[in-house]
Batch of 3 targets.
Target 1
Amino acid sequence: MKSRVMMIAWLAFAPWWSVSATEALRVDFVEPERYTDLSLSGSTTERIQTYILGELEGYLKDLAANGLPPSHTLQITVFDLDMAGEYEPWRVPNLTNIRFIRDVYRPRIDLGYVGRDEHGRVLVEGREPVSDLNYLMLADPYYTYNDPLRYEKAMLRRWFEARFGGRTYGALRTESR
């Protein structure tokens, strides 16, 4: 009976002890109202900005849930965002809300990160501008054409895998012990 009570108590508190997928990554957006480009179809309303930031945060959390070792955490701080493409209102008055995707208008995200192990030790940290000059040549079949953040997501996935996936993150993890 006593062991049964202990088991029930353990099951009740176990989720607090382990790191869930949503807790594996924390994303902070620093002053998003000052970001270089945070708009869709020319609209910079708060609702649109909240949608874009929510999509990016959710995508980064998915990457962390699938790419970080269990019980490791990652904190990403986004300092600036410049989405792929630009608006060219000088072309034709009817096209003022059309984002033109050209290789000169590459996506760019300025971010910082801190990765920690299960004991809270810092394994990796840094700040860097993440940009992809070849974002049009490296078209990713995983993202649909109606996803307005497909270029940013593909760029973030490649960056995440380079920084935290496979040998890179594993090598940092074993060197710190």
Target 2
Amino acid sequence: MSDDKAEELKKNILSPYQWVRILYMAFYAVACWVLLFVLPVIIVCQVIISLITGDDNSNLRDFGKALSDYFHQAMNYLVYATDEKPWPFSDGEDLGDAFSDSGDDDEPEDETPAARSAAQSSGDDVFDDISFTGDQKPERASDDGVDYTRADDGSADDKKDSA
């Protein structure tokens, strides 16, 4: 039986399929390493653009999505989750879909992160009564009916006692 295992091991080590896959894996490992430097740059640029304009850049978003999809495909190949090689050694159909303007996006055009943020901020904002200048007083009364304002002359205590 030891001879059978030795023969199988020899067959696996000398298999051209294994060595070709290892070469592809070396290429994709380098590509993923490069993407680990490119993707954070895209993230920082997108954050800066979002802070300045209040909206994300759709071209940068699509490019970042395509790169992250490619990174995912390459990692799946590297960990033997799939035998399908990512671009440039495949037909590249999956990568091309990220740049097409077919309107089949998962997210509707008006549902960008900035649009969702604007929709959320148009509702009841718990921080709308906060003022850092001290010029405004909150207009909302507390929910429990107790007046928590304090005055130096004790008028707040008088209001609680009279209620």
Target 3
Amino acid sequence: MLLRNRETGAARLLGACPVRPWPSRLEKREPIDTILRMFKSLLIAFILMGTLMAADLPSKKYLNLAAIKKMVVAAEAEATRQNVSVTICIVDENGALLFLQKGDGVSINTEEWAQKKARHAALYGSPSKDAADVVKSGNTAALSYPNFFPGQGGLPIKVDGQTLGAIAASGAKSEVDEAIAQAGIDGLLKK
């Protein structure tokens, strides 16, 4: 029986020749086909490697909208309980504004003060009252520090030792402002 190669037209006798006269499947591949196969293999390897490396990245907690709403509700409840109207401010760990609400009948300057208290607490990782204590102790040079604000009422929001941001209140007595801010943090961290 005579077999014919469809592409080349070469013929051979079945069983007569142990060597195939036409190229095998691997020999027929074009160089571009081989390069594409190598590229696909490398691409898959890089994707798998990237996935494994991404698994090693640390996770970071942050203040989302639900957390902000919890804090605001708790802070407003404490302000109502104390029978005061205040401006409430929440910032992220970099001092960027996330929430600002001016209470009814509160002076317009409380917006700025609340933001300054919150930024100090977030960036320094300590209550803004600490800044007031530093200035009261005679270190007036601290007033030149960036975002340093010596007014009580701003508190850092810390979870597992990490500062996520800060909350501040302004418009009432300093102690009341701080109590309102603390109520906001307590509202977030309660189980």
